[in-house]
From TrEMBL:
Organism, scientific name: Orthonyx spaldingii (Chowchilla)
Keyword Nucleotide-binding: no
Gene Ontology biological-process annotations: lipid metabolic process; protein O-linked glycosylation
Annotated localization: Golgi apparatus membrane
Main subcellular location of this protein, as a coarse class: Golgi
Protein's name according to its UniProt entry: Hexosyltransferase
Entry GO terms, CC: Golgi membrane
E.C. code: 2.4.1.-
Gene name of the record: B3galt4
């Protein structure tokens, strides 16, 4: 199992160069694929194919960042992304903070105009990862899978990964310094604010609805709040290995907890 920890967390980072809708050569082998639609089949717990990438930042180049920060964001959250870049997601100049890098993770907007805006933003900042699946709350789990796959394929040397929402503030120096100076930290570290004994939402009209066909248990295993959590490289690799056998339940933080339990 992946070890879970127990603080409220948040983090930050740095950008890298990137371009428009093509995938950097070093990532093609592990990230190429079809659409992000669900595979059809008799199994009530579908798994997504690896989505085609519409936008991708450049792979991490040596030396790798100590902390890779991946921030799910909606296409319309232009102001939120700018605020993250200008504050906790930008460089912490002059500090002794271990190096970090920030990448925003998005799905596909319904409007071609929005897609053109995202392409311009990507060319300007070089920090956007976009999968070819609809950007919606229901697809947050697909975003999580995409960010884990990109981290493995394109930034595998980063010791730690931090997933943080685009509407939080993260104390990057505190998180990075804590991780860098933590003696005896678990190799498979899964660190965040832990939710215990949460019951599945069975209300069909709720966006948090979890059908019994996907998860029949009376309570979820412990999981870290999706607001922000840290994974070690080894933990992220273990989650990906377990992903194929875990139903695509929402919210995404529950899905991470289910994968961690395996």
């Amino acid at each position: 199992d992946v070890a879970a920890g127990g603080h409220d967390i948040a983090a930050g980072g740095h950008d890298a160069a990137a371009g428009a809708p093509e995938v950097p050569p070093g990532c093609v082998g592990l990230l190429s694929g079809g659409s992000g639609d669900l595979d059809a089949g008799p199994d009530p717990a579908p798994t997504p194919r690896t989505p085609r990438l519409l936008l991708s930042p450049a792979p991490c180049s040596p030396p790798a960042p100590f902390l890779l920060i991946l921030v799910p964001s909606a296409p319309s959250h232009v102001a939120e992304r700018l605020a993250v870049r200008d504050t906790w997601g930008g460089p912490w100049g002059g500090s002794a903070t271990p190096p970090a890098r920030t990448v925003f993770v998005l799905g596909s907007p319904a409007s071609p105009r929005w897609q053109r805006e995202l392409q311009r933003e990507s060319r300007q900042h070089g920090d956007m990862l976009q999968g070819d699946f609809g950007d919606s709350y229901a697809n947050l789990t697909r975003k999580t899978l995409l960010l884990l796959r990109w981290a493995r394929a394109c930034c595998d040397a980063a010791p730690f990964l931090l997933k943080a929402d685009d509407d939080v503030f993260v104390n990057v120096p505190a998180i990075a310094t804590h991780l860098a100076t933590w003696p005896g930290a678990p190799a498979r570290l899964y660190l965040g604010r832990v939710h215990w004994r949460v019951s599945p939402n069975r209300a069909p009209r709720s966006r948090h609805h979890v059908p019994e066909a996907l998860y029949a248990g009376r309570a979820f295993p412990p999981y870290c709040s999706g607001t922000a959590y840290v994974l070690s490289r080894q933990a992220a690799t273990a989650l990906l290995a377990a992903a194929a056998g875990v139903p695509l339940v929402a919210p995404e933080d529950v899905w991470v907890g289910l994968a961690a339990r395996r």
